[in-house]
Amino acid sequence: MEADNQQQDSTAVAIGQELRAAREGKGLSIGEVADRLKLSVKQLNAIERGDFASLPGATFARGFVRSYARYMEMNADALVARLDQCVPLDTPPAALVPVNEAPAKASLALPLSLGALLVIAGGWFLLPGAAEPEVQSSVPLALVPTVADPDASALQPTTSDVVAVTPPLVPASAPQPAAPAVTVPLAVAASAPSAAAPVAGQGRIELRVRQEAWVSITDADGKKLVYATLAANDSRQLQGRPPFRVVIGNAANAELAYNGQPIDLGSKIRGTTAKLELN
């Protein structure tokens, strides 16, 4: 027996030495091999020493040796076969003992117990003076209304009660979506009838700027109807006593109408400013 143990130990050491020699022959450090095989340096040192007992188990040891041998381009099957001679395989778990007899015994005991109970019950009824068992209702009598009980109808819901708590399925009115805003060009707006007709003796001016522009409009009384910088896409509708003195900066991006008639600003522009009088 001792000679067999010595032979197994020498075989394990020889396997480790062969793997180590192959690694050193390729010029690889043990750390590089550990990174490549995803093993720890401690596990590789144990393999190269032939100390397979320090590994997690025989199954893991066989897998480690096989991966190591393949990476070293060695005959992995031959090394694993030699490893099986010195490292015994993991002992399989003990088989469970079937317990099929227990239900059979229980199934036989149940009819016997029931028969014994029936015999005892029958003998008890045959005894003289045996009282009949009292059957109790599982429902309290106080909770069972009778026909003569005037309050029994209170337990039934009335139609009016159901209707009172039933929420309406359809809302009375659905909110209507807001109508989208429609932008009307100045030429169209000029042709449409004005909501507020100009007062007799006054003129009506409509102005729109596509880009930011400075505007000054003064009537005959010297009243400044507009004297400000208008933002892009801003528009104004003005009334006053003519004649009007009009000054528009960035006039190329402005549209002007007087009493519903478009005014051509192109001929009035000097640089970027248009100056004109409306009468």
Automatic annotation (TrEMBL):
It comes from the Bacteria. SMART domains: HTH_XRE. PROSITE patterns: HTH_CROC1 (PS50943). Pfam families: HTH_25, RodZ_C. One of its GO terms (molecular function) is DNA binding. Residues 19-50 form the HTH cro/C1-type domain. This is Cytoskeleton protein RodZ.
